[in-house]
Predict the structure.
Amino acid sequence: MPSIQAKIVGDFCNLRCTYCRDRDFDQGRVRVMSGETLSVLIRAVSALPQSVLRMHWLGGEPTLAGLDFFREVVRLQALCSGGNWRNTIQTNATLITSDWARFFKAHNFKVGVSIDGTQETHDLDRVNLSDKGSYRQAMQGVAVLRDAEVNPSVICVITRRNVGLGAQMLRSLVNNGFTNISFNAFYNTATDPSRDDYAVSDSEWTQFLKDVFEEWVRIDRPDVKVREIDQMLAWTQGKIAKSCVFRGTCSSWLLVDHDGAVYPCERLGRPTSFGNVRDSSFTEMLKGSRYREFAFRTREVPNKCQKCEMKNFCHNGCVAHRTDDGDSAPHYVYCGSRLAFHKLLQNSVGTLGSLASHTERG
């Protein structure tokens, strides 16, 4: 059964990041999820047949919904008996106050922040309405979170403009106290990626991963976890990677928009809708023809993957990062980087032994 992403303010945001996949939509209009829709959503999630109920609060910028909105979230969740709720929020951190931080701490919210490496690389793309960089504001928000004993993870977006600075970006994040780090290669499925000035190529992503790995080894900090490294190291040790980008399907996620409409993962935009949470339960949607057709398409594996040594680990990669290249099914655009990075890890035999503790502790 899936985890639920809730895009509670639609595309509304206080920043105007140059690469944002929502830039083609309406980022300037306030459309906060209504109390009625929120109540229906919480009840629908609580009805899922799973012991842990995972909610991921997204935007736009989700804190624009207001602190009272999230107080109502935890109130409604508490009314659902037997629910073991896990809340995560992904924020640009620029609006974080001590009230927000205390709330997250009191209610055990996991917090992820968006920081694009160094101040220079961050401010190049993550700008506000006045086209000014947001790094200082974001790091002030991080400091407020840490003062309340909330230790945020970080997502760093890699575009064509910063892809050559992997080592510097990783070291800056570590020097600024981040130990749970994820890098997202930008590949925009909301528009035509081939015409997107920010999309990262396979060869660029390959070099980026190598640069980050080499810097990670130099840093030599057992507490620093980099998702892309940990997932690949897991496979070299015969373990199953946890991230959905190694599962070859989008069954891990459902996205609920501000109006209750339900879509696949937020990376895929809105071309496919499974219905509306106000009209149908998640169980009904998952049994519906639109979901079954979508799930079938995402599980298709192109011919070139059939004999690949990484087939049972890669599963044709993230569904949002596939393109039609004339094969029997759309193919993962970062196939080459996975093969090259895995080979790099295999060749680092001496290093891998000393780094095994990273995945053991993950």
